[in-house]
Amino acid sequence: MGKASFPRALPDNEAVAIARNLRVSPQKLNLLAQLIRGKKVSTALADLEFSRKRISLDVRKCLQSAIANAENNHDLDVDDLVVAQAFVGKALVMKRFHARARGRGARILKPFANITIVVREVAAAKA
């Protein structure tokens, strides 16, 4: 006697991937989320490949995971995928102290962030 299956939160033409605890501030990660939001996945992958930001490698891996989820788990066509949503959330913040002059200490905040990428299959425009 098993538990009833949990209903799927996303529509049938969408897939999601989440990267948690990335060692970057949410503000910096949001710059990359803005870069790929609304683009075709092939264009978004190319933009992340040639981005100079350090964290773009992890965002690219998350996008590739969302594409793989769409293809393998939901039988969506990879060529018709678009980045429907890309949003950033805060994770933990490590607090550290740095020695300063005259015996004082200064607080250093080392933030972590999460990114969620949702890809959607859109019908290809017949030209």
TrEMBL record:
What PROSITE patterns does the database record attribute to this sequence?
RIBOSOMAL_L22
Q: Where is the signal peptide?
A: none
May I have one GO cellular component term?
A: cytosolic large ribosomal subunit
Q: InterPro entries of this UniProt entry?
A: Ribosomal_uL22, Ribosomal_uL22_bac/chlpt-type, Ribosomal_uL22_bac/org-type, Ribosomal_uL22_CS, Ribosomal_uL22_sf
Q: Which GO terms describe its biological process?
A: translation
Q: Does the keyword Ribonucleoprotein apply?
A: yes
Instruction: List the keywords (alphabetical).
Output: Ribonucleoprotein, Ribosomal protein, RNA-binding, rRNA-binding
Alphabetical list of Pfam families matching this protein = Ribosomal_L22 (PF00237)
MF terms in GO:
rRNA binding; structural constituent of ribosome
Top-level lineage group: Bacteria
**Coiled-coil annotated residue ranges, if any:** none
Quaternary form?
Answer: Part of the 50S ribosomal subunit.
* Function comment: This protein binds specifically to 23S rRNA; its binding is stimulated by other ribosomal proteins, e.g., L4, L17, and L20. It is important during the early stages of 50S assembly. It makes multiple contacts with different domains of the 23S rRNA in the assembled 50S subunit and ribosome.
In the record, the note on similarity to other proteins reads: Belongs to the universal ribosomal protein uL22 family.
Its name, as the record gives it, is Large ribosomal subunit protein uL22
Could you read off the lineage of the organism from its UniProt record? Bacteria, Pseudomonadati, Pseudomonadota, Alphaproteobacteria, Hyphomicrobiales
**What's the encoding gene here?**
rplV
